[in-house]
Amino acid sequence: MASIVRELTVKLPIPHPAQEKILNSVAKRKIIRAGRRSGKTVVAAIMAVEAFLKERRILYTAPTTEQVDTFWYEIKQALAEPITVGIYTKNETEHIIERRNTENRIQCRTAWSADMIRGSYADLLIMDEFQLCNEDLWAVVGAPMLLDNNGDAVFIYTPPSLHSIGVSKAKDPRHAAQMFKDAKGDTSGRWETFCFTSRENPHISSQALEEIIKDMSRISYKQEILAEEEEDKGWLGLVYKSFNYRTCVIPRFPIPQNWLVYSGHDFGGANPAAMFYAQDPATGFFYAFQEYLPGAGLSISDHIVKFKEIVAGYNVIKRVGGSHQEGEIRQGYTAQGWVIQEPKQKTVLAGIDRVISLHELNKVFVFEDLFNYLFEKSNYSWKLDKAGKATDEIQDKAKFHLLDAERYILSDFAPETAVVRKASPVWTF
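^ that's the sequence the OP posted. Answer follows.
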């Protein structure tokens, strides 16, 4: 009796030249730095499907549901025919495609930290938007899960910029860049690096790309479209280069009740902000323990309620905020019981200099879950002139509300005076 054989088609996108190089690589560890809309998630999907057809187990992670949905759509389209006839099963809830009763599967998960993939294992681990993930995603869980099968890992990222502010869960927002730099220096063949721009994707509309670019600063354009790291060009525009992420970004701990508390405030109807610092009386060191970035729609009294909740039970020594011209706003807070003083340093540059000095002495520590603050810190940059040299103006200064709040309060402290002092409470809540 003749058997009937049916051919099934797996439909994969045709890779562009930059993607082709990645797909042809045999390196066990690949790190991809690419611009927005460059096709980095599509090449991840192609890699995943090709590995799946070789009966491997693949785990794809990304920190946002949007990225996961994009990847999920691509692999579903590619494997639509064999899924339809029952060769593979699909679980929309768990985002899994697998062959029944085997270890052969593709799973995609929203994940930005180790806890979100504990218990998983894979032959191929793909981490998309890796720059937005906490470093422990790879170091604590990702690397060990590949040990049993000598699996492969792929890291995909776009240099971070203000367009992704508030999403990053990294302690050091530039950890992916450091990994890329280290991988580039590898001579063993285990690592391979790839870099391509948004413009190398022939499938993206040039008109759409130009529309995106119109809303970007020059720095953001270099980072998100050209996929350039500042360090690659020897760019020296970062203001707070003296801030040591590895030493001064620390896990959260309960602030002792006898520590002194200070707050810095940046006014604005649309983008009010505040930073709260505790000072250890024994060392004089400052600890940023709370960021406040509520958005528009709250009144002064609404803000004060939130502030008092943050500092409940602590001695608030001083509150500082606003420019010299914003005295009327300070009076509005004072009238409702939250006294805010004018900063001692009247100019932006003088205030920045004080903060830099404190960072140089490692006197300011930051809790690792202050994601918005850390992102602003890693992108606060001097504006460049036409020759590419740094000026004394801040690029996109109006976007850095938390750093303005920080500058107002920390600039009141000369680095040499940030030492042991006795607690002398002014206000207690």
